Amino acid sequence: MELSLEAYRIIINNVRSRVDLATLCLVSKGFRRVAERALYNTLFMHEAARTKQICKALASQSRVAELVEALTIAIEEDDRRGEEEERVRPETQEDIWPAISDALKKMARLRHLSVVIDGTLSSPYSGRLAWILNDCPFRLKSFHSDMRWDEDLVRFLNVQDEIEDLYIGDYDEGQEANPTAPSRSLGAAVNPPGPSTRLRSYVSHSNLTISPSALPHLYTLECTFSEAAIAIVPGRPVSKLKTCFSRTDPEGKREEMQVLFKALGMALAAGGWHALDIADAEYEEKFAMDLTSTMLAGGVSTRGTLKYLGTLVLPVGGRERLLFYGLLMQLRRLCCVELEITAWNPSPAIVGSVAFRALGNELRLYCPGVVKIVFVSMNAGVGDDIGERTTVEWVKGEGMARVESEVMNGMGGSEGLWRDV
């Protein structure tokens, strides 16, 4: 008996197992139509062998590939490989990315793509994998990638006119040798595709620069180098930014700050800036004060719009802390702030939740609109190289603030707060 489309959807929405969804695809045409959409709508590719199987299936079945709207590629290497497997591994490295490339060319309705390389299975290409995006038909809404910045990646971004959320883990302004992409000629059937042995001597600056007309709808930008923000933000409606200073010497960092804020002032966001998260290799109290003062005094529209600000050093001295609060008071819509407290001794993390609530309540005396504070500490007693993030949140109707701590590993819930404001 054939059911209504709504009935099929209700049943599918209550199925949690992907195995069960695959089984329902075999029950009837009605179930297959709805179950396939739920099964292939969002894909995560982690295991190398499994990824190759999925990609080959998608490349040979365009109808199924067009159901994919969100894709995450984060190939993991198995540390438990035996010696025999290690000898086979280079071949796997060579052909997994061409298989992914073939599958991507069939995903016409893909809207969200995340490619996390992090050195895994990419050594044959030295991280230069943007060639897998060549000739892809999709128009993305979000794109997150730590691929090497090269001509292929720039060419891809130049034609993506619907991206609203962009993360790039690498940036290069040019003048370095660049391996060509693997040849995809007819000879590939005999010799597996791999990096070409020919090298272009140099890459011109213009070939590594995004076109001024590219990314016209970019609102959220995350980049690990401030140079990328300086190049991308001007002329685009970016209102949320997470980046990091590249310089470490005080004078050089101040010059970098001036150039960065000049670029931020050239953003075209109609409603001003909503979130700024600017990290630093070495946090200093004086520089944090200078950064906040420069931001408020410059042409960056933040006073009546900024909701999230980080990462700033919370001064230890009482007088300096009052001056710091005075600067924050000028940000009338500020509701979330990230503060670095490594210099505090003893660390509030050692004292416990009481200390964090006390610091939070003190700040809220001057900035009552702040409802969430993230305290960052690198001396929280969990290891020299492992920090801790403690979130203090005031929830309406609750008499006491909530306090939650997490290890800094890049995957904590508080890491993405700047996106959510």
From TrEMBL:
It comes from the Eukaryota. It comes from Lentinula detonsa. Residues 172-191 are annotated as: Disordered. This is F-box domain-containing protein.
